[in-house]
Amino acid sequence: MPSDTIFDKIIRREIPADIVFEDEHLIGFRDIAPQAPVHVLFVPKTPIATLNDVQPSQAEVLGRLAIAAADFAKQQGFAQDGYRVVINCNGHGGQTVFQVHLHLLAGAPLGRFGT
Ligand code: 5GP
Fold this sequence. Notes:
Protein name: Histidine triad nucleotide-binding protein
Bound molecules: guanosine-5'-monophosphate
Mean pLDDT: 95
Organism: Lysobacter koreensis
Helix content: 10-25%
CATH architecture: 2-Layer Sandwich
Domain HIT: 6-115
Shape: globular
Strand content: 15-25%
Number of strands: 5
Strand order of the largest sheet: 1-2-3-5-4
Number of helices: 3
Low-confidence stretches: none
Largest sheet: 5 strands, antiparallel
InterPro entries: Histidine_triad_CS (IPR019808), Histidine_triad_HIT (IPR001310), HIT-like (IPR011146), HIT-like_sf (IPR036265)
Structural class: alpha+beta
Radius of gyration: 14 Å
CATH topology: HIT family, subunit A
Number of domains: 1
């Protein structure tokens, strides 16, 4: 079945989003329910449901997501202060949209996991 998540609809401009980056491979837009002062999602345009589904031949997809996030942090001036990137996978990871995506969280000290 073809991928048709809410993120596919954003990529196709069928629903609005605050888009901060786009190229031929991926799109970046602000999360609708931000968990930090800066919360941007980077999403590949290739349909891939979860991190489990990324094939070795698609390794570049993950590199592009990470580099896009770092470039955005540099452009916005918070790269040196720091930020967090997260990929949630399936139920225990808290994934709710089944098109693989990378969260970029920044703009304040985020604390450590598990504390
Ligand atoms: P996940 O839990 O799958 O890792 O992350 C999905 C993220 O997508 C959540 O942080 C959620 O707030 C965000 N989200 C869900 N629907 C929309 C939407 O329609 N627009 C935007 N911009 N973000 C969304």
